[in-house]
Structures are given as structure tokens and as C-alpha cells.
Amino acid sequence: MIDNLLNNLQIYKTKWTSDLNDEAELSRLLLTAPHKMPGIISTIFGRFDQGSVLDYITGGMGRTTVIENSIFEWDVMIEYDKAIVIKRAVYNGTEITANTLGVYPGLAGSTFQIWVAEKWFGPGAIVQFDDNKFQARVIGEPYMDGNDYVYTLTCVDGKDDSFIMPSLLLPGSKVSRLASAYEEWSDEADIFNAQTPFKLRNQLTTTRASYDISGDAFSTVMVISMRDPKTKKETKYWSVYQEWTAWRQWYERIDRLMVYMKYNANPDGTVNIKGTNGRPVRIGAGLFEQIAPSNRRAYTTLTLELLDSFLSDLSYNIKGFGERNFIGLSGEMGLREFDRVLREKASGYTLVDSKFISGSGQELTLGGQFTTYKGLNGITITLKHLPILDDVVHNRKYHPISGKPLESYRILIIDASMRDGESNLRKIVRKDRELVVWHTAGSVAPGSGHAKSISTLRSNAKDGYSVHFLSEFGVMLADPTTSGELYCDAE
Questions:
Q1: Packing angle, helices 332-344 and 304-316, rounded to 10
Q2: What is the rounded CA–CA span in Å between residue 78 and residue 82?
Q3: Tens of pLDDT along 4-15?
Q4: Sequence-distant (≥ 6) Cβ neighbours of residue 449 within 8 angstroms
Q5: Number of C-beta neighbours around residue 326 at 10 A
Q6: Which domains does the chain have, with CATH numbers?
Q7: Alpha carbon distance 336, 302 (integer Å)
Q8: What is the DSSP letter of 203?
């Protein structure tokens, strides 16, 4: 926002107003004067004249889910295979520790035992250790020792000089399944593993805003004409200008909520914050809060190595879905860093188009400020400017060199893949309450003007009217493990 003079040609500073705008307030703001030939000025709308950025990549793409409750839950299934931790290992009665010397587990076809917390392998399973060149085969069923399962193993190749490095059997090391192998006429078999999904819960947030216009202000002609940069319409009436600015601020607030909201429900679903009427004020989790903590990384100067490693790590969690499409939301400085890395060093990345996506249905084309890069291993990332990250009013920590907000360097990388016909990133809205706009009319009503008849029914006796905005919505990352955040740590 503009607090200081733009240059020496500016006559007076911007002044601020809120809530009721009556004729006296307009006079204080120097927006009324005797009639004279007016100039025309385009309102400084920032970049919100086209609505919410996040609405474009969710609701604007048809990626909205309508629900009839304020709380929503979903299940997330993670990988069904994993490496399990070795808690203890013994060879020939000797427990293997960091100080164990002269021990060669599995040498000359001998066996050794490992203790693990789960029954994860069946007889005949071939397992591999943290160095996967070392492999062993499970002999028979495990037995219980307290709460642990004890497996007996032998080297898989059966050679006299083969053994497993003791360092691979230390507590905290891991073992995973390769496959299994059996003799002719066998009656043993490895087992399949399964994991139940874990449940995530979020809730909708009800946000509201309103403005008032007095009857005099409704009819007041301003000293200047204002132009809507989106529609190019001009007006000299404060009431019309107030409507434009209200929409701009509304969309900006929606974007901020979708990114920064913090979940405020207790584990039992109750909410401690109460509104004026005593009912709970529910706030859902925004995008930043939904990202898995392990998927947050800091940088001082963005490098190709960090970017490539980060995208590759996120892609590992998208195995099996056939696409690795990411959206990168960032401020101006983050987009510059990203673009600098790709253009200067990332020869593996190619600019493929300037549109977000093409097609029909849920794959509608949306143009404007999108830049898509296609890289190695099928990774595609589409950059989109998120203006709220550049806002110096709300982001008051600055980069020590550039002086720009540190938040402007933040890059929110969202997995936008489609899975079974549903987008991983979705806007969740209450039925019929995604956007509710209405007015309460007094002497004046927007659209119809002043009442002229005693038969005109109005809602109150005010000389003016009020306009109200309401939305009940949330945002959902169906799989929070596949999205991430790069942030600048240069304070």
C-alpha cells in the first residue's frame, strides 16, 4: 500500500477509511468538490482485479468439492512397503555392537539373528540391508522375544566367503524386502504386507466482511473519475468505487486465508474460541499448515542442486500415479530465483508453454502469468505469482540484501496431480455458501437507488444501505506428503 509520496508530482498522501462512508468522510478524504472538469484515474488495484489466485487453480479449474457439514475428513494411504528398524543382532551368541570385532555374520553359510518390532517377512523372504549389495534369506518363521520378532537369516548367495558387514546390523540400521525364493516342491511362502490408512481432518472457515454507504454518499459525485482496470468501466460515484475495492479486498483476504489459516479445533473436535453470540469460531488449516514438516527446506541462495533434489524427493511420494505435476506459488523474488536457476543452469528443464493447462472439463485452459517447465523423469512444474507474499503491509521481515520481504522468496510447491479423477489440491465449500453476497437496504438500495414510494419495502430506517460478503470454505491437500515448501533463511 502507498504511505509515502510516489514522486514530487503527488499533491497529497493517500488517506485511509473504513466502515461507514458518509458525505463528511468523503469530504475529509478530498473526494468531493464543486463541479469542474474531472481527470480520470485508474484505481491501484494491485493484482487482485482478476479474483483470487488460489480460486483459479482450485474452483476455477472445477476442482471444488461441495459438502454439507463444516468438518471434513479423508483417508490417506501411504506406501505399503517400508524398511524396518533392526533393534538387536546376534551371531554365534555374540551381540553385535559398535565395539564388536572379528565377527562375520553369515560366513560359510552360518546363520545369525535380528530382532525387529514387526512381523514383516515370511519364510524364504530375501532381504537387503542399508547397503543393498548385502542380502540374506529368512529361514523359517520368526519367534517372539518379549514384544519383538526374532528372524534367523543366512547369506543369500551361499558362498563360503560371504558375510554381512556387522555395521549393517547395528541397532538403528534398517532391513527391507527384495523378494523371495524357494526350492522345488516347497510349502512355505512369503507374506504380503498391508497398512491401514490414516485419517486427516480439517474444517471450514466462515469469513465475512461488509461496508456501509449513506444515502448522501450514494449520490455524491467525486472530483475524479475512477476506472476499473478489469472491465475498463469508469465512474464518478463513490458507491461504485466502494464496490470495486470491496471485491478486490475480499479476494485478497480469501487468498490469505487459504494459505495462512491455522487449525483451531481440539482433538475432541471442540473449539475454544467463541464468537459474540457464544458459538464456536472454527478456523481450518491452510496450505502451509497442511504440508508435512519433513517437506520444508531452507535456502539462502536457491541452487539447481537443492531444487532438483527437492522436486525429486517430492516425486518419490507420487509413485504409481503416472504424473508428477507441481504448481509453484511464490512472490516476485521467489519467481526470480526460480527462473534464474532454470534458465542459467537447468538444461534439463524446458519452457513448454505459458498456460497452466489445456483441455476441457476439469482440465480447462487458464492463461495469464503461468510459466510451465518440464524437466527430467516426467516432472512438470508450473509457476504462478501469489501477490500476498509480496505485500509489505503483512510481510514485515526483510531480506538483508534486497530489502524485499523474505516471504516474497518463499516457494510453495503443490502436487496438483489428478488421482482417480480427483485433484490432490481441492477447495472445499459448504453447499450454497461458497460465496454469499447480499445487502440490507434503507433509504437506498444498490441497483434501484432511492425509494420513491411508501409501498417500497426496505429492511431498516437507515439513510443508506449495507453490503455483506460471506464465504464458508476450506482447502484440502489430499496427500500432504507430496507437496513442499522452500523458504529463504537469510535474516
A1: 100
A2: 10
A3: 444 444 444 445
A4: 218
A5: 23
A6: 1-76+196-491 (no CATH), 84-180 (2.40.33)
A7: 10
A8: E
